[in-house]
Amino acid sequence: MKACKLSEYIIQRIYEDAITQLKLQKSLYFIYVYFLVNKQKKIFNDKFQRWDYGPVIKDVYDKYKKYEKNPIEIPKKK
């Protein structure tokens, strides 16, 4: 699984609470750590970068950076 795919799932499930880029990145990190500790495997292979406000997956950041600090809009179903 790619982190971008997981981020889409998170946005779909948490949208009622209006998730921001920062919350999304932190959610990805906690999910990653949970799987690593409890399942002894990685849920995705994307690498985190160390940024001032915490760990970031650059591909996910690039995908949603247009929202800046605003809530991420739910993607339209095709």
Strand arrangement, largest sheet? 1-2
Number of strands: 2
Report the biggest beta sheet as strand number plus sense, adding barrel if it closes.
Answer: 2 strands, antiparallel
* Uncertain regions spanning at least 5 consecutive residues: none
Tell the overall outline.
globular
Note the gap between the termini.
21 Å
Count structural domains: 1
Based on CA atoms alone, the radius of gyration comes out at: 12 Å
As a percent range, the share of helical residues equals 40-55%
Structure description:
The protein has 78 residues and is mainly alpha-helical. The protein has one domain (3-66). The chain is built from 3 helices and 2 strands, in the order ααββα. It has helices at 3-14, 21-38, 58-64; strands spanning 49-51, 54-56. It has a two-stranded antiparallel sheet with strand order 1-2. A hairpin with a 2-residue loop joins β1 and β2. α1 crosses α2 (21-38). The chain is globular. The two termini are 21 Å apart. 15% of the residues are buried. Pfam families: SocA_Panacea. InterPro entries: SocA_Panacea.
